[in-house]
Amino acid sequence: MFHNDDSGAICAGAEKSEKNWRTQLVPKCAHVDCGIQSCMRDVPFRTADKALLERSMGVRNFDRGDKIFSEGVASSGLYCVRSGLVLLNYKDAIRSDKALRLVGPGDLMGYRSLFADEPHVTTAEALTVCNICFFPKTPIIRLTDTYPLFSRMLFRKLARDRGSRNGLVMREQHLPIKLRLIHFLRMMEKQYGITSRGGAVCVQLPLMRRQIASLLSARPESVARAITELEREGLAVANGRNITIPNPRALYHMLDSNDE
Amino acid sequence: MFHNDDSGAICAGAEKSEKNWRTQLVPKCAHVDCGIQSCMRDVPFRTADKALLERSMGVRNFDRGDKIFSEGVASSGLYCVRSGLVLLNYKDAIRSDKALRLVGPGDLMGYRSLFADEPHVTTAEALTVCNICFFPKTPIIRLTDTYPLFSRMLFRKLARDRGSRNGLVMREQHLPIKLRLIHFLRMMEKQYGITSRGGAVCVQLPLMRRQIASLLSARPESVARAITELEREGLAVANGRNITIPNPRALYHMLDSNDE
DNA sequence: CGTACCGTTGAGGTGAGTCAAAGTAAGTGG
DNA sequence: CCACTTACTTTGACTCACCTCAACGGTACG
């Protein structure tokens, strides 16, 4: 379970500033409104315990490029992305960086490290401006110990997150780059695509070619070439990080019948 | 969390026989002695609850090639490998089979599907004769609800399992085949290697070239060639599925300094 | 003794990596 | 506002690691 994309650094964004998580401006709604909330429904929290969670919660904004937590650092809690997009990186067998997966709004990070009680094996980097909330280890453990249902809902969420979404990117790496790219676009489109009338979908990717390439286990040049090829085939229109897919069904059809 | 290698099929081994899990000969020790036991230490189980777990536990043997559970089937519980080796397969974006990871003695299977309350996305196939025990969903959920510490220990085990071991195979697939093979051998050697005096290690791989290739996202021919090349370099001696590594440090050194 | 499958080796093709260079966009300072 | 820097993107030419296809030896099994 948990895969390796864990995390939970001590005051992770130390490189950003010494600002404490609490000092940051907390959005108007003081209550918990991130991914963990879906695990709290139906759980008969006592008022005091709910207050504990809310009190201990920290919220911070990160700029593009900021590290939210870093590999090798001990976990100090659970991170939850409210807005923005985060990339988890790890180091492979020869110690070079490799993108592992994307973490988006409503997703949790740092759980593997938290529950394993081991240092992070990944580094979380903000791809866009991010609003991220943080729950320190102690109250989280205390609440999972007190409320088994909360615990179960939390694990259900984690188990389901990994099941779908971009965890899949990693599993397709034996396919040709073009198919991996299509697969990647399909995932991004599901989460971030804007469908216009006519069926065309526009995705604004918050990743640069280098990062897409790392996710796909490829090189930036190869990604550029694959995109160019899709353009030549009329399956996509790229404009920097904006990609328009005129006919999604035609594009995804290539995954089913991989006849060039 | 959980990665996608989940599982927990209903009477999974239906293709093997209609034998119920309980009908199989249970090894002399009637108590729980598989991977889940490590999660039970220090947990203040009441006698009745411990008995419940033991009573509901099923044990079965599988022959080489048997399916323990299959993709698409709903989870019915948690599987634990006592002995033998199991391969988890999934279907990729173009619906062709791909090996995901190996599951060995003490490891759990089927947890993602169990906790996500979703069908299995993988198929578990016995690579060797396997002795596997099974805990039905209901008592497992009941016990995790009753004993938060048990729950936490269980998740800790799962989180730690994925962190190390062969989950890593998947993450190295952008490296050349030879390095992936070395990485794979290192993992297998740690678990199944027999070290003779002199430092040489002998590993008897229970996988055929085809399966190794699938794990490494490569072709059987390429695996054979990579092994041959390691032999030419004096780093390994292969005899079918027996591989002897005369000097493990020299072999693994290639991962650090990948200068051919 | 044939059938079937696994494992190995060879020959040949190709997808994708490497290297290099030019084009583009974004930020900086005068 | 415009040079200048810097980093990202794209394209081309070349190379090579790996895949494909095919043949052959070994072993198991009926």
- Please tell me the CATH architecture of the largest domain in chain A by its name: Sandwich
Distance between the termini of chain A: 36 Å
Order of helices and strands of chain A: HEEEEEEHEEHHHEEHHEEH
Largest interface: A-B, 51 and 52 residues
Structural Rg of chain A:
19 Å
- The tally of domains of chain A stands at 2
What top-tier CATH class of the largest domain in chain A fits best?
Mainly Beta
Count the strands of chain A? 12
Report the uncertain regions of chain A: 1-18
The CATH homologous superfamily of the largest domain in chain A is called Jelly Rolls
* CATH fold topology of the largest domain in chain A: Jelly Rolls
Determine the strand fraction of chain A and express it as a percent band.
Answer: 15-25%
The main sheet of chain A orders its strands as 1-8-3-6
Structural class of chain A: alpha+beta
Helical coverage of chain A, percent range: 25-40%
Average pLDDT value of chain A? 84
Query: In this structure, how is the largest beta sheet of chain A organized?
Result: 4 strands, antiparallel
